[in-house]
Each structure stands twice: as C-alpha cells, then as structure tokens.
Amino acid sequence: MTKHTLKRESLLCTDPLYAAHALGHDYGVDKLAKDLFQQPGVMYNKLNPENDSNHLYLRDAIHLTELADDDRILSAWCHSRGGVFVKLPESVNCDEELSDQLLLISEQMGIALAEIRDSRADGVITPDEFERIGRELTNTVREVLSLKAVVSSQVRELHTEQSLSRNLVNTTKVSDPLPINEFKKGGLVNE
C-alpha cells in the first residue's frame, strides 16, 4: 500500500488494525484527520496496518471509535482475544422486548444452521464456507449475550415475608419499644 492509499479490502475484520483501516476508509481519512487535529498524511499512516512509521495508539482508537460512532475496532479486538463485542440495550422495560430478543436468537440460529447445511451440501466445507459459518455463529453468540442484557434489565427484588422482616430488623431502632410505623409501612397493620 502506498503512503496515502487505503484500499477497500473485503475481509472479515478480525484484526483491530484492519478494522481501523476499514473505519478510516468509510468515515474518510481526511475528515478524521481534521476532526482529530492531525496531519492527513500521519492519519493515513496510522490507519495503514502495513505502515511502521506511525502507530495507532489506544487513545487514537478510542477517539476514532467515539468520533465515528463505530464499534468495528472493538469487535475486532474482542474477536482477536477470543470473545465477542455485545452492545447492551439502552433500556428494556417490557416483556415484548424479551420476546423479540428470543425471536432474534431463533432467527439467527436458523441462519447459522442454514449456512452449515449449505456448506456441507457437496460433502466438503471450504475455508471460505468455514469463515461464513464462523461469522454466523459469532452473530448467534452475540444475540444470546444480548438476551442476558435484556433479562438482567428485568431483575427486581421480590418482596416476600422474609424480606419484609429483614427490612423491619434493619430499620428498627433500639429505642423503639414497638416498631408500629414499620408494621404500617409494610402493610402488616390495617388502620
């Protein structure tokens, strides 16, 4: 690659440097350079994974990710470390969102299994087919992990008789001969 050329490569970005390269191409290297107060030539070099003169530092990667609102660098880094990046939902308040996430998991699992079936149709799974299978399975894992976030947003404390008595013990003052106010708050005394 030349100094000022960022060629579009059609590959699954599993390397953070190549993900930064793709982000630079999509967002615009000159625009990134201007927005980050850097010389365009330096930015081209930083985003070129084959360049050894300028390096993309963690601070740069964070700024690029935030500025472009693009998670490709994070996703590639997670993948290179054996994980997946899962964006948590902003807020989940209803059972409908839980149902929708379960449907998304089923749909994505179907896509992944169809990819495996199609790849095996001729009796051989090629490296390209294996890459597509891996991509769909990673997407399936991402949806399953998103389900955890949806479920965790619905966790609430169940108020049982035991938790009410625990609260009563924790809020009763030693000087109170009879904690009648606490019984009223808990609904144990009818007025």
Quick overview of this protein structure:
With 191 residues, the protein is mostly helical. Helix content is 61%, strand content 0%. The radius of gyration is 26 Å and the shape is flat.
Structural commentary:
61% of the residues lie in helices and 0% in strands. By secondary structure, it is an all-alpha fold. It folds into three domains: 16-80; 95-152; 158-191, no CATH class. The N and C termini lie far apart (82 Å). The relative contact order is 0.09.
| Main sheet characteristics | none
- Tally of individual domains: 3
Dominant shape: flat
Would you count the extended β strands for me? 0
Q: Output the structural class.
A: mainly alpha
Note the total helix count. Answer: 9
Low-confidence stretches: 1-11, 176-191
Cα Rg: 26 Å
Binned, the helix content reads 55-70%
First and last CA, distance: 82 Å
On the 0 to 100 scale, the average pLDDT is 79
Strand-residue fraction?
under 5%
Written as H for each helix and E for each strand, in order along the chain, the element string is: HHHHHHHHH
Write the layout of secondary structure elements.
Elements: H1 16-27, H2 29-35, H3 40-47, H4 58-68, H5 72-80, H6 95-120, H7 127-152, H8 161-171, H9 180-185
Helix pairs in contact: 1-5, 2-3, 6-7
List the defining traits of the structure above:
191 residues, mainly alpha, 9 helices, disordered C terminus
